[in-house]
Write a structure and sequence with these properties.
The chain has helices at 13-23, 93-102, and strands spanning 2-9, 25-33, 38-45, 59-65, 83-90, 107-109, 116-120, 126-131. With 151 residues, it is mainly β.
Length: 151
């Protein structure tokens, strides 16, 4: 297992990037999704960075959900909703989810795609699990398992 990043939702990406730059982090990569209407901005400290465009050893992921096309107000993040999740890369997402489920953990977002799952800690902190390398082939019971709760 390898720690990847911590995600926080932001309402002003430029101001937030400027804050983290003052703190000493630098943008290492960015992804803008026109279809999903969001931007992901990854920041890392120099000591963790491997260069522009490369995944760093430890990152902060800023998630900016764009304003709605219809002009409605963006979601307001309250009650800690702006904190997203911790993320870990795992060698086998199915084995990891099975071990967690066998230990009594609810799989909130099952790895239907063989790539990504979400679980929660006892204190309801979301944990994202990502398959190392290419996604595994879809497999049961995961492929048809529904989402449970929120993550």
């Amino acid at each position: 297992m390898r720690y990847l990043h911590t995600m926080i939702r932001v309402t002003d990406p430029d101001a937030t990037v400027a804050f983290f730059e003052l703190l000493g982090l630098k943008q290492v990569r960015r992804m803008d999704s026109e279809k999903g209407r969001f931007s992901l901005i990854f920041l890392a400290a120099d000591e963790d960075s491997k260069g522009e465009g490369q995944r760093a050893d430890a990152e902060v992921e800023l998630t900016w959900n764009w304003p709605a096309e219809d002009g409605s107000a963006p979601e307001e993040y309250s009650g800690g909703r702006n904190f997203g999740h911790l993320a870990y890369r795992v060698d086998n997402i199915y084995e990891t989810c099975q071990r967690l489920q066998d230990g009594g953990v609810t799989i909130n977002r099952p790895p239907r795609d063989g790539h990504m799952a979400f679980v929660r800690t006892p204190d309801n902190i979301s944990i994202e699990l990502l398959q190392a390398g290419d996604p595994l082939a879809p497999a049961e019971p995961w492929a048809s398992m529904p989402n449970v709760g929120a993550w």
